[in-house]
Design brief:
Keywords: DNA-binding, Sigma factor, Transcription, Transcription regulation. This is FliA/WhiG family RNA polymerase sigma factor. By secondary structure, the chain is mostly helical. It has helices at 2-20, 23-32, 34-45, 54-71, 80-99, 104-124, 130-137, 141-152, 174-177, 192-205, 208-219, 224-231, 235-261; strands at 162-163, 172-173. It has two domains: 2-99, Rna Polymerase Sigma Factor, Chain: A; 104-261, Up-down Bundle (Butyryl-CoA Dehydrogenase, subunit A, domain 3), CATH 1.20.140. The N and C termini lie far apart (61 Å).
Length: 262
């Protein structure tokens, strides 16, 4: 009963906002949808190991919520929650990228890892083995494992990271390329179908455990700790599998970008 009353109240707020566009009704809508901001932040926080606290992330997300309310067009055929979630997440990620506190050396390692997977897997048309990637990077297997560890505890490794696209194309997040194909998208991205087709192939080529970690984490929303219990592996091992899977995906898209430029 309480949920029904709350839904009716929210509908009344939307009706008033759409007819008046006054700040008071907009602010009331923001308050009504703050739980959505908190939900998005909780999900993103699982992949964020930086120094920003949840209150800062909520602040970033609230700016995205305000923008969503002001720009939402019900005539486009999708639900506000779908559109707002996309805007909130984008605002948080934009805020984190603007902080740009990650050491340059770590970003350099991330790029080297991405390039190594792209070149090896394009050459062999299969998932590259750890020994092959280590040799390509010119490091020992132990040094390669250390690189994986450093990257796995950084905020660089997530399906919410932005991917390179065709020249002039809009930014695409990895997570946006493997979501339910039946879901309604809030905006049309010009090269989305090409990215989806490419990464679907890469996902299918992932080693079984890496593909399972990606599926459980991003589709089923299990934490690394929960996945570790399911697979009877350590949390650090799950994190490592996740890191390798993400760099395989990023490498494949980087390679595609180079081909399109050629």
């Amino acid at each position: 009963m309480q949920e029904l009353q709350q839904a009716e109240h929210t509908n009344d707020l939307w009706t008033h906002w759409q007819s008046t566009q006054d700040r008071q009704s907009r602010d009331a809508l923001v308050l009504a949808h703050l739980p959505l901001v908190q939900k998005v932040v909780r999900k993103l926080s699982r992949n964020w190991n930086g120094v920003v606290n949840d209150d800062d992330l909520v602040g970033m997300g609230t700016l995205g919520l305000i923008e969503a309310i002001e720009r939402f067009d019900p005539g486009r055929g999708y639900e506000f929650v779908t559109y707002a979630t996309w805007r909130i997440r984008g605002a948080v990620l934009d805020g984190l990228r603007n902080l740009d506190w990650v050491p340059r050396s770590l970003r350099s390692k991330a790029k080297e890892m991405e390039t190594a997977y792209a070149e090896l897997e394009h050459r062999h048309l299969r998932s590259a083995h750890d020994e092959e990637v280590a040799a390509h990077l010119g490091v020992s297997l132990n040094e390669f494992q250390q690189m994986l560890y450093e990257l796995s505890v950084s905020p660089l490794v997530s399906l919410d990271g932005v991917l390179p696209t065709d020249e002039g194309g809009q930014e695409v997040r990895l997570a946006d390329t493997i979501i339910d194909p039946n879901a309604i998208e809030p905006d049309t991205m010009l090269d989305r179908s090409n990215v989806q087709a490419l990464l679907t192939g890469v996902l299918n080529r992932l080693p079984d455990k890496e593909r399972l970690v990606v599926t459980l984490h991003y589709y089923e929303e299990f934490s690394f700790k929960e996945i570790a219990e399911i697979l009877e592996l350590s949390s650090s091992r799950i994190s490592q599998l996740h890191t390798k899977a993400i760099y395989r995906l990023r490498g494949a898209l980087s390679r595609r970008k180079q081909e399109l430029r050629a």
